[in-house]
Specification:
This protein has 380 residues and is α/β, with parallel strands linked by helices. It has helices at residues 21-31, 54-63, 78-92, 115-140, 159-163, 171-177, 189-199, 212-218, 247-250, 253-262, 271-282, 285-291, 335-342, 348-353, 363-377, and strands at 12-16, 36-41, 67-72, 97-100, 147-150, 293-300, 305-311, 317-320, 329-334, 358-361.
Amino acid sequence: MLPNTGKLAGCTLFITGASRGIGKAIALKAARDGANIVIAAKTAEPHPKLPGTIYTAAEEIEAAGGRALPCIVNVRQEEQIISAVEKAVKTFGGIDILVNNASAISLTGTLETETKKVNLMMDVNVRGTYLTSKACLPYLRKSKNPHILNLSPPMNMKPIWFKNHCAIHTAAMDMLGGSGIEKQCRKTDIIADAAYCILTKPKSFTGNFIIDEVLLREEGVKDFDVYAIAPGHPLMPDFFLDAETDMTESHGASQASDGAKANKESAPAGPVAETFRLIQGELNKEMVKSTQGVFQFELSGDEGGTWYLDLKTSSGSAGFGKPPAAADVVMSMSSGDFVKMFTGKLKPTMAFMSGKLRIKGNMALAVKLEKMLTQFNAKL
């Protein structure tokens, strides 16, 4: 863990979304230096699903050695932002650091995303960040060492992220990935330590895109097990970051192709074959008409090889080998994960996010297949 140096003593940090998760972790890190923390967040009353309120966060911050000012702030409401900034200046005499942490996310395709959800994401992630920065800037300019820290996924310019849209464990990850996902994640402490490192640098350190682990390694941190929820457990890859090899295309490909060669003569018996047999029994012309896509599965493992699901021709078909028509979508994964996905034990979105599923081809059709899985899940 990165030790505190006391450099933020007496500094005032205005942190959006600081009632829980990463925002609160950054607040607690700064509080240990004796910093003043403005908790600008929505949750004033206990939430049925999410932990903490602005008041419980304030108690933790003051117990850690800081001073806290809890403010009810929905960053979609400009007047609430302005009011909180004015209270901060009146209480602490100014603002030295702004941390834009509040965010909204929806991991859905264009057709599946409601307009109100798009409005929420734009209002919080873009407009809210702009309004909070605008309100704080006059006071930041008066600070001796001002900083604005914007938290976001890494800036990966590869086309796949514009075509479709190491994880940190927060309440949002529980909602997206379900129970058990936390074992594959790191604590919010790693973001807090990286933020602390940035915010204690001189104001000349600006205009940088920073990856937490890279920065901390440069600062001399060697033991990253301390940040793991479950030390020793494999971590979920950050799906916005490239691995040393191109994970979005190459992972599992050699295993799958080797399996295809080895099993070219006859279909292997087992859970995958049984799953395809059951899928074949559920196909109908209406399903084909509504989908119009051919899916090819390159599976590795015990039942490795090439399998297909044709939802474009006649009444549809499924089985072992190359599809009867050119594939619109090619999915690569292990045979075990394939069975889990088609029986409802593994969400396709999480399989893709965690690197268990690689997709090439028509992503819109891949999303269609994901929706169709809900029909199969009940019967497989």
